[in-house]
């Protein structure tokens, strides 16, 4: 049952991303082009997502002590704004603005067969693996 619900939630997410236009890189790039062909429509998509998530979190955390399929909620506990977080956010934003894809929008866009999506996704995976390797090496140096 857990996998069926996971699939249905992922399907709903992918359809929402696609119908909202966030899987279309031209629409995303135009959203970031405030000095040129600015398209503010994605602000409404993101605003709707934030409101929905806010209500959803309040509903879930207000009613249940534990999730249905896991022993506990996995909520981030780090509340620090450090260089690593801000640097990662900057790289994410710059990549999103240049490529027109964020990881969430790229996953459903893989179904379009567009080679640019596959290139972006490959670069995303390489970036994640590189970051993990660098963090591992940094931890090893700190321990030594």
Q: In words, what does this structure look like?
A:
- The chain crosses the membrane at residues 41-60, 81-101, 113-135.
- Keywords: Membrane, Transmembrane, Transmembrane helix.
- This is Permease.
- With 144 residues, the protein is mostly helical.
- It has one domain (2-143).
- 71% of the residues lie in helices and 0% in strands.
- The protein has six helices and no strands.
- It has helices at 2-19, 25-32, 41-63, 83-99, 103-109, 115-143.
- Helix 1 packs across helix 5 (103-109).
- The longest helix has 29 residues, at 115-143.
- It is globular, with a radius of gyration of 18 Å.
- It starts with a helix and ends with a helix.
- The relative contact order is 0.11.
- The mean pLDDT is 87.
Briefly say what this structure is.
The chain crosses the membrane at residues 41-60, 81-101, 113-135. The protein is an all-alpha fold and 144 residues long.
What tags apply to this protein structure?
transmembrane, membrane, mainly alpha, DUF6691, 6 helices, 0% strand, 144 residues, 71% helix
Specify the number of helices: 6
Helix content: over 70%
Strand elements, count = 0
Spatial gap, N to C terminus: 46 Å
Strand content: under 5%
Mean pLDDT: 87
Structural class determined from secondary elements: mainly alpha
Which overall shape is indicated by the principal axes computed on the Cα atoms?
Answer: globular
Low-confidence stretches are none
Q: Mind telling me the C-alpha Rg?
A: 18 Å
How many structural units, i.e. domains? 1
InterPro entries: DUF6691
Keywords: Membrane, Transmembrane, Transmembrane helix
Transmembrane segments: 41-60, 81-101, 113-135
Protein name: Permease
């Amino acid at each position: 049952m857990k996998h069926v619900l996971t699939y249905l939630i992922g399907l709903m997410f992918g359809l929402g991303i696609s119908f909202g236009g966030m899987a279309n890189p031209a629409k995303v790039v135009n959203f970031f082009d405030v000095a040129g062909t600015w398209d503010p429509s994605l602000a409404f998509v993101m605003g709707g997502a934030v409101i929905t998530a806010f209500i959803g979190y309040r509903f879930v955390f207000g009613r249940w002590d534990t999730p249905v399929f896991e022993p506990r909620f996995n909520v981030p506990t780090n509340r620090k704004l450090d260089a690593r977080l801000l640097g990662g956010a900057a790289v994410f934003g710059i990549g999103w603005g240049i490529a027109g894809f964020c990881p969430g929008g790229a996953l459903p866009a893989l179904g379009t067969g567009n080679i640019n999506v596959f290139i972006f996704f490959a670069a995303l995976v390489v970036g994640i693996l590189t970051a993990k390797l660098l963090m591992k090496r940094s931890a090893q140096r700190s321990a030594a």
